Here is the input.
Amino acid sequence: MATSSLARELKRGSTEVLILALLEERQRHGYEISQLIEARSQGTITFHTASLYPTLYRLEAKGLIDGRWVERAGQRRRRYYRLTREGRRALAAQRSTWETFFAALRSVAGIRHA
Amino acid sequence: MPDWQQQLHRRIEANGHTCDADVLAELATHATLAYEAALAESGNAREAEQQVHALIETWVREAGHLRRCSRRSSAIPPPAAGGSFLASVAQDVRYGLRLLGRQPGFAAAAILTMALGIGAATLVFSIAYGVLARPLPWPDAHQLVRLTEMRQGRTGRISGTVSNGTFNVWREHRTTIDDIGGWLTQTATLTGAGEAIRISSVPTTPSLFRILQVHPLLGRLFDEGEGASAQPGVALLSYGLWQERFGAQPDVIGRVLHLNERPYTIVGVMPRGFAFPTSDARVWTAWRVPPVTGSNGALAGVIFRATARLRTGVSPAQASAEATQLARQAPDMGLAARALFGAAGPIDVSAVRELEAITADVRPAILVSLAAVALLLVTATANVGSLQLARASTRRREITIRAAIGAGQARIVRQLLIENAIIGLCGAAGGFGLAAAVRRVLPSLLPSEFPRLDAVTLDLRVLLFALGVAMLTSVACGLLPAWHTRRSALSGALAEDGAAPSGVTRSAAARTHALIMAGQVATTCVLLVGGVLLARSLIALTQVDRGYDPVNVLSARLPLPPGLPAERWRPLLDGVTDDLRATPGVTAAAYSSGLPFVSSGGFAAFNMRSPITPDTNIEVQATRRLVSPGYFAAMRLRLVEGRVLSDTDGATAVPAIVVNRTFARQYLGARPLEVRIPQGGAHAGGVAFVNDQADVRVVGVVEDMRQDRVDAPPQPEMFALFQQVQPTSLQGFDPILVLRTDRDPARYVSTLRTVLRAHAPQLAVDSVMTMEDRVTMSLARPRLYAVVLTCVGTFALLIAGVGLFGLLSFSVAQRRREIGIRSALGAQTRDVVVLVLRQAVPIVSAGLLVGIGASLLGGRSLASLLYGVGPYDALTFVAVVVVIVAAAALACVVPARRAARVDPLAAIRHG
Here is the structure.
């Protein structure tokens, strides 16, 4: 019970990192992000689409990502998100935190992450 | 294709939510793309539609979170670089004001702390400057010296006085001084100018006004030679008396007023603001210092206050030396000297600068208060500094971004300084207002004899002081965060959003923060130790055994018209006390020549054969109290042995005296009640009994009665009955009425006046007061010290407590992620609380150690203000440590609980 709760929390906690990491390469819209998370984690992270937009709006409110409507020829209007300068710093910091966390787990419990 | 936006809108509204159009449009785009993908995969529109409907339902469930908040920028847009210097400063000021406006809690705490700190410092500085440093209002006042004569190291019975012998001989042979002036202070009944009133009158030698280099507003000063007893009296009016009693009429010169029924011709009016020796003085009369040997050959001793003006280039020490040398050649005042000084040994005259002499009593208190408020100001500054430091740590990103977009280090530091200057100036304005408000009520707060309060003003100098303090503290508060910003690496600051568990920059800031806090704890400790010691001293002073019982006693002085013979006023007072005794509730009524806090009643000096070593003659010096028989019961003097004086000791019976314990020990040996004191011979200032043949018998010994100060050693005292003393000896004092009641004595004030009016309508009592009020009033100064230091100490404790709370809360907030990881790795609640306490314990311990050390070192300076408790009193130190530790523990509780409640997963997720 405790283990599954931990897994659930870790997944939810990782959503922000995943989104930030996906936006590091280039700007993307919400649907694309949801597809990429599912594809890249090969189903390990069963991303709940419902939480995508609240997470995006939260990151936007924090100033880590920036969303804007873009209309391209032959395409319908979409809202693209890009990583802000602050978002880039935050992503670096979050990566280091996860490193620390896994290092701690590794040293204590012999757990390794991929 | 279905209209997804409309469907979404309907479904979300049906669930009681609203979404803005932008969010709906975005979700609709997502739905459209999902539908297209599903349709492409399955080719079944219905199936695709169902999939999207399922998706919409998940959104509907989360509709509460589908809200895009406009991003509140991390800061108001920082001022742009460039532009003129003034414009950029104005920009910085506007930016600083807006930032503070965004954090009203921080701004209010910082400004209030600074206002209290600056207000207290400004007030005490204005007192210290006005009282101790502002020059006296006479030309070249630094050349004025106050003289004190001592014999065998003992000052006159009235301290700070010289004798007529010394005064006259020095005046005659002076070389180091221009001149010397003397004066007495008296209260006299003024008649001949409206209703009779009691006013302060100052018999003054004509030389005094020349020394002070003052000029009259109207008329002239006294001429040399005026003031001799054979001469007609002349008087100078104060400006106030001239206004109130003489209608400010210019033709007042030459008119006659009566003081104690003696006529004085008005020769001049002094200018407004002339106040000598104090602002109470209403009239000055010409007075001549009598020679030691009168025209009839009798020796006359008188002590009074005197001031001299030094010749240019002469130091007070040179003047002292000359005066001492001359005084030792002055005619011997014989036993009068013993009566006045309690010793007849070699004379020493000290000359102390007038300003120092006037303020000697209050100097230690002002300096202690100055030190206390300086420490308070340091604490307040440190607290605002640490608040700023905490704020700066959270602002590091903003500041570093500004640095990254081109703001120079100087510009950033300037911005921080300007922000602090705003706080400092607001604090200074508040503090100045606070000081001004307290200044108005100062006279009612301070003891009535506090000197030079009229010189305490909040003028430009004080304003500049307040501004200077504000600027200094602003710079101190502002430089700390600026310094830390400089130290913080750009990347480290920007990466902080991720809140690394530990880092070089955070630990450096934390160290400074911890040092400030330890300093605050140390300051609080010093202030509280001082405050508690003074408070304990005050309690000891209040509870000390004074040798009599001041509870339920009413006393009043009865000024008698000069020349009223004892044969007339004694029966009158006997009648008054008889009537008072007959009043229900009055248990005893009496009158005497002296009463604690009012008047000692007189001195006696005489020779007698020592009862201890019969071969030697001893010189007895004692306070002489003439009393009516009921006095012992009225004051509840405790009888040690023998009996008290009573009505059975008739006028012509064997003379009987009661002595106090000190008298008995010092002069009478082991069996005082067997001592017989022969009369006759010289008894200058002694007691002349009606029965002048029989030896005087000591019939009783009572406990020592404290006259004024309980910390002064008790003096030998002797009590004799009015009825046994020759009426010719009953001159030169105003009798004091004393009544003991079995309920609140203040209720008998009107009874006292009524009874007196019935017996003597022309007399009026003054100084009507309960004995307890007299005790309380005498403790005004120690009470003030205790209150000031305890208040300042408590305030410092509050500031330190809030500071510690802020530090720990900030630290817990910063270490949330670390605490979360520790908890995730198995740390228990106890471990987390210990983590927080481990930070507080070294700070508080270090602060306490330094504070105790400083208190021990500074103890000696406080010793002169203490009574009944030593400066190193262990109980006080323990109590202060306990209070500070308790306050610190209280400050730790909330942050520790907060740390214990950190949800590890939430902490790891959000940081």
Summary: The first strand of chain A starts at residue 28 and ends at 29.
